[in-house]
Write a structure and sequence with these properties.
A hairpin with a 5-residue loop joins strand 1 and strand 2 (10-11). The chain has 7 helices and 18 strands. The radius of gyration is 20 Å and the shape is globular. The protein is of the alpha+beta class and 235 residues long. The strands form 5 sheets. Strands 3, 4, 9, 10, 11, 15, 16 and 17 form an 8-stranded antiparallel β-sheet that branches. The protein has a 3-stranded antiparallel β-sheet with strand order 2-1-18, with no helix packed on it. It has helices at residues 20-27, 36-41, 95-98, 119-122, 134-147, 216-219, 224-229; strands spanning 3-4, 10-11, 13-18, 30-35, 57-59, 67-69, 79-81, 90-92, 101-108, 127-131, 151-156, 158-160, 167-168, 173-175, 183-189, 196-199, 211-212, 233-234.
Amino acid sequence: MGLRTQTGEPCAILVKIGQREHLEMLRGGLLYMNTLAYFAKLEAADPRSDRFEGTDRVHAPKRIRHLVFDVDMPGRIPHAIDPRNLVEPIRVARSRTSACNVFCMFTITAPIVGPVFSEGNERLGDYFVEFTNTPEFLTRIAGAVSRQGLTGEYGMVEYYDEWGYSGATGRFMKRSKFAHEREFRIVLEPGLDGPRRFEIGDLADITSEVTPLSVADDVLRFTPEDAIAAGLTWD
């Protein structure tokens, strides 16, 4: 899904929102990568907070017929709960899923009509950097991963109906309430207990200058006419 070149290959424009000092370090080649567990534990007021990060599977209340907790301990008996009394989906998570480091970006995968960023995105920082050559950026990521003896994967985040979906989730699925983020993420393992400072080499040649978010609608102007002129189509 999203933008495609004339050859049919998918492409996306990647944008990182943040504070000026952090984005200057990014242009110098430093990707600051927190763990998924970090985002799950953030206070709810933080726009990056998501208690469901690192979840392996969710079960929507309306798709649960019977719910019984049976703890295998002496003196404990099974306890039944009416699914209609659940206030949110049931989460199933393994510590391994959240024990990785991630780098998250905003994507433009279709021509823009209206503001580029919604209010939710604007809470992430006052500045942005655009990656001007996405394939080259990902190539450099892959090279650094190999040189440092790590494993990694990247891709678009898929958003699911948080009240209707039941099934597997993992590291690349989030609730629909976060769909405004249009997130593309890079995941590295083995995960550190804290943030990873992932050095990949200077990126100044494939990134824009650090730019105020207030002028994003002018700088990131990308109308349907612009896409057609660039030889792009979209789904």
